From TrEMBL:
GO terms for molecular function: ribonuclease MRP activity; ribonuclease P activity. InterPro entries: RNase_P_Rpp40. One of its GO terms (biological process) is endonucleolytic cleavage in ITS1 to separate SSU-rRNA from 5.8S rRNA and LSU-rRNA from tricistronic rRNA transcript (SSU-rRNA, 5.8S rRNA, LSU-rRNA). This is RPP40 protein. It comes from Motacilla alba. One of its GO terms (cellular component) is multimeric ribonuclease P complex.
């Protein structure tokens, strides 16, 4: 009776709040960015950075780690890979919540519209990160938490609409085919 309806109202209120994604925007000023060439995954000295260097750099940026390699920093002495360029303004948008694949495709399509303006980015990224302790992963396997719970993929999209797809999963997880 009354107990059941109280529980129903509690869950309906809290589930609605839980399912509504939280969106945050920030502007990163004078950001050192790796120079990338869409057709060069390995990178070339003094010409472009590799996919691995980009992935590491992106992790530092998303975790707001300083890129200036100060010896006094106890957190990180990481610096942006070479060659790099300073971007006056970079926009970072974070959406946290349960997001269905159709919405991710919509986001990708909207991001590609930025290339219509010649003043805007040469490349952009979209990272989709699963919860570290998510019970599911790709394919048939359960998601193994073990050490870090890695469970993400990252699109790097270039102005000519070439793209890279990077994936990271834990050592005990299956990767998509």
């Amino acid at each position: 009776g009354a107990e059941g309806s109280t529980l129903m109202s509690y869950f309906s209120k809290n589930q609605i709040q839980a399912l509504k994604p939280k969106i945050t925007f920030s502007t990163l000023r004078d950001l050192q960015c790796p120079v990338l060439q869409s057709n060069d995954l390995q990178g070339k000295p003094e010409e472009s950075c590799s996919t691995e260097e980009l992935f590491e750099w992106l992790g530092a940026v998303l975790n707001q780690v300083s890129l200036d390699n100060k010896s006094s920093s106890f957190l990180s002495t990481y610096c942006c890979p070479e060659p790099n360029t300073v971007v006056e303004k970079a926009f970072l948008c974070t959406i946290t919540g349960f997001i269905i694949p159709e919405k991710i495709i919509q986001l990708l399509e909207q991001l590609c519209c930025y290339f219509g303006d010649p003043k805007l980015a040469y490349w952009l990224t979209l990272t989709v990160h699963g919860f570290a302790d998510s019970p599911v992963s790709w394919r048939e396997s359960e998601h193994g938490f073990h050490k870090g719970g890695e469970n993400l993929y990252n699109f790097v999209i270039f102005r000519n609409l070439d793209y890279w797809l990077q994936m990271a999963v834990g050592a005990h997880d299956d990767c998509p085919p």
